[in-house]
């Protein structure tokens, strides 16, 4: 088997699938994609509601947990990351959400020339195929995006309640205005999830210049004479060096990319040396600046089962839903954890929403996704859009098969504590609005006993968790402390790039998958430009 390629991509997640497709499209450049997981054969991957069964699947995910932190009750939080073709786009909640334009303009202001909203909009349009069309939307891209296949009646009441508290209702959540209420859009075609693997990788597999090397663990980046020469992998117990003529692109995600750099001796020298790894480059910024959204869930009781799907997702009614999904492509099997979203500014003067509230007409026993409550209910998840808390990804061990230490440091800034309390109060005000009277019976969790700011913050610290949006751990920037320049090139090592959520200078206000696809689309253009020089 050939072990030398023009481009070697590490990771077949959202970014890696985009890069594999675009860089091999010329028919001449040879491309290898290294993926630790296997093919996306599991049936639950392709059923939208299957996320509830695979979010922590022992083979399809990495099984990560965070390090305990006093700010969040000294809990080790589950931290799902996909380990399969499509990566986290194969296990996520299918949400397709653009950031606020100011997110990307702030990137440009931080020295990331070419990454403002006007620069990135063409890439958002390029990657998506949104049948609804509309201002600024793409209709011819590889990634299908659709409105909900089924719009539960309760969502209309939520929309009316949003208007009642002074917030607009948007027909297109990815249209010109982010603030307000909108129903979710999904990375779905008809009845099936369309992950990045299905949108980008699988259609390109017939190209003879594209090779997927899956079930392979990347051990380290090999650097020769200051240049990334390839990636050492272990496959089936055998180690092999996959060489790169032009370059190596890390697309292993905001956890995997810094982890591989650290294993290669690229990062804070003291840290890597402490684990017996010879420091190759002292780059303190690798693995730092971890940002993520922290979600706190509320559960409400509804007055009647007509408003809730709780009984529809257990047997025997679930059998009818399976039949409905198979024959019509509708029903609860097409649902996401987030069916609608409310973006809002909880204080005057903010240039963008500071709180996002998602939810749908399902409620879970003990508030954990998986087993529905027997009584009718729904769940709301509240999170801060632009957290100020910063965490890290560091080594626990020099063994590549061992997980890194993931420290999100949620709620370690006072501003974040205050924002989550404001968000919970906004959710309560929304649910108390007149259009929901006679529909919403009462709040179950946290309940009326959590009334003061101190009590709400205590609930947030004791019960919250990740929204699965890790980012910013190998950031680009115009300052010398940024590991990457604005062309996503690693400073000090030729032929090495990073092109995934790691590169964000700051997290956008929303779910991040659509931004990752756009970053990877732009990265492919940057690499192609450099090849022509």
UniProtKB/TrEMBL annotation:
Necessary cofactors: FAD
Amino acids binding FAD: 84
Entries under InterPro entries matching the protein: FAD/NAD-bd_sf, GMC_OxRdtase, GMC_OxRdtase_N, GMC_OxRtase_C
Record GO terms (molecular function): flavin adenine dinucleotide binding; oxidoreductase activity, acting on CH-OH group of donors
A Pfam family hit: GMC_oxred_C
Record-stated family: Belongs to the GMC oxidoreductase family.
Species lineage: Bacteria, Pseudomonadati, Pseudomonadota, Alphaproteobacteria, Acetobacterales
UniProt-recorded name of the protein: FAD-binding protein
Domain of life: Bacteria
Keywords of this entry: FAD, Flavoprotein
Residue ranges of every copy of the Glucose-methanol-choline oxidoreductase N-terminal domain listed in the record: 253-267
PANTHER family, A to Z: CHOLINE DEHYDROGENASE, MITOCHONDRIAL, GLUCOSE-METHANOL-CHOLINE GMC OXIDOREDUCTASE
């Amino acid at each position: 088997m050939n072990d030398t390629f023009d481009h070697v991509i590490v990771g077949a997640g959202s970014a890696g699938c985009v890069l594999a497709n675009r860089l091999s499209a010329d028919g001449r450049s040879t491309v290898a994609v290294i993926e630790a997981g296997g093919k996306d054969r599991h049936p639950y991957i392709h059923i939208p509601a299957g996320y509830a069964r695979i979010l922590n699947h022992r083979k399809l995910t990495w099984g990560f947990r965070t390090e305990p932190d006093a700010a969040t009750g000294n809990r080790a939080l589950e931290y799902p990351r996909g380990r399969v073709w499509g990566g986290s786009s194969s296990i996520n909640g299918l949400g397709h959400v653009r950031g606020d334009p100011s997110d990307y303009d702030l990137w440009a202001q931080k020295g990331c020339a070419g990454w403002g909203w006007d620069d990135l909009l063409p890439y958002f349009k390029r990657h998506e195929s949104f049948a609804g069309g509309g201002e600024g939307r793409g209709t011819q891209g590889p990634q299908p995006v659709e409105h909900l296949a089924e719009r539960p009646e309760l969502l209309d009441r939520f929309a009316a309640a949003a208007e009642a508290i002074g917030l607009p209702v948007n027909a297109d959540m990815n249209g010109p205005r982010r603030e307000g209420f909108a129903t979710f859009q999904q990375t779905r075609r008809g009845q099936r999830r369309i992950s990045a693997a299905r949108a980008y990788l699988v259609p390109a597999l017939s190209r003879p210049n594209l090779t997927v090397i899956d079930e392979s663990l990347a051990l380290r980046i090999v650097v020769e004479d200051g240049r990334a020469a390839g990636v050492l992998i272990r496959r089936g117990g055998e180690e092999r060096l996959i060489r790169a003529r032009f370059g190596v692109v890390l697309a292993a995600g905001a956890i995997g990319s810094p982890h591989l750099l650290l294993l290669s001796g690229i990062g804070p020298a003291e840290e890597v040396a402490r684990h017996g790894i010879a420091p190759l480059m002292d780059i303190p910024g690798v693995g730092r600046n971890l940002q993520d959204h922290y979600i706190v869930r509320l559960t409400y009781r509804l007055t009647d089962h007509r408003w809730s799907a709780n009984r529809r997702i257990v047997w025997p009614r679930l059998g009818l839903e399976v039949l409905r999904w198979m024959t019509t492509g509708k029903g609860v099997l097409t649902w996401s954890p987030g069916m609608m979203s409310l973006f809002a500014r909880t204080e005057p003067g903010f240039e963008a929403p500071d709180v996002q509230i998602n939810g749908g007409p399902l409620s879970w026993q003990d508030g954990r996704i998986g087993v529905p409550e027997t009584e009718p209910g729904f769940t709301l998840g509240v999170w801060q859009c632009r957290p100020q808390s910063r965490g890290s990804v560091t080594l626990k061990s020099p063994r590549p098969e061992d997980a890194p230490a993931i420290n999100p440091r949620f709620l370690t800034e006072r501003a974040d504590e205050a924002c989550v309390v404001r968000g919970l109060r906004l959710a309560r005000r929304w649910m108390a609005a007149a259009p929901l009277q006679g529909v919403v019976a009462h709040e179950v969790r946290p309940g009326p006993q959590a009334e003061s700011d101190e009590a709400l913050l205590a609930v947030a610290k004791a019960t919250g968790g990740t929204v699965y949006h890790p980012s910013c751990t190998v950031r680009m920037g115009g300052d010398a402390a940024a590991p990457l320049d604005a062309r996503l090139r690693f400073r000090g090592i030729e032929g090495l790039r990073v092109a995934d959520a790691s590169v964000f200078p700051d997290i956008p206000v929303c779910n991040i998958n659509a931004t990752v696809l756009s970053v990877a689309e732009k990265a492919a253009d940057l690499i192609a430009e450099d090849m022509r020089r």
